[in-house]
Amino acid sequence: MCDSMRNSTTSTLQAAITPNDTSILTSVDPRQTSTSHAAARWPTIEIFRPLESCLTSKDYFALENFLIVLTERRSREAEYLARLIRTKLADARIVLSEDVSADVAIINSRVTYSINDSPAETRSLILGESSPVPNFNLPIFTLLGIGLLGMRTGQTGPWTDHSRNIGKLALLRVDYQPQGNRQASQTASFPHELKE
């Protein structure tokens, strides 16, 4: 990616992230607690590997640039989140935005997922943290957001919350994906191939 695009992504990230150290590490999922767990240890990253995912170049560089923000944090949660992101980036298959399948969760997708076979929940994966509709948007810079980003419909995998509990995360469906929607509209505009 060229420097101008990288700088644009970095600027977007800096504008989207609030200075509150704990806000970036707190998911909108009510099952996650924010109590202190100083004595508990985070599960090893290796239990999640390989973190099978398909990231667009935009998703990849958003996560990569967020690592810069995390290096300024001095908490164990930030360190764990950074390790999880590095692992995801290392294991991911990277594609151009126009080549991503419509059943893959990317930034600005609306997804329906389940944790430990609990009732399905629907959220929109967003780059920033603020949301005009509480409990609807899910920032990708959370444990849950990172877990869902790049998953394919029907895919399951191990997941951990802020209480260090390990469970199963399942992406049930991608209800809306901006790139998939764009591809569908282009196909509708040109429904017939040109005949010689």
Structure description:
The protein is an alpha/beta fold. Helices cover 32% and strands 19% of the residues. It is built from 5 helices and 7 strands; from the N terminus they run αβααββββαββα. A 5-stranded mixed β-sheet has the order 5-4-3-7-6. It has a two-stranded parallel ribbon with strand order 1-2. α1 crosses α2 and α2 runs antiparallel to α3.
Gap from first CA to last CA: 38 Å
Molecular shape: globular
Count of domain modules: 1
Query: What's the pLDDT, averaged over the residues?
Result: 75
- Proper CATH architecture: Roll
Give the oligomer, counting copies of the same chain as homo and different chains as hetero.
single chain
Q: Would you give the CATH topology? A: Chitinase A, domain 3
The H/E string reads HEHHEEEEHEEH
List the total number of helices.
Answer: 5
Would you count the extended β strands for me?
7
- Roughly how many Å is the radius of gyration? 17 Å
Find the CATH superfamily.
Transcription elongation factor, GreA/GreB, C-terminal domain
Low-confidence stretches: 1-39, 186-190
Structural class: alpha/beta
Beta-strand share of residues? 15-25%
The percent of residues in helical segments reads 25-40%
Q: Could you describe the largest sheet, including whether it forms a barrel?
A: 5 strands, mixed
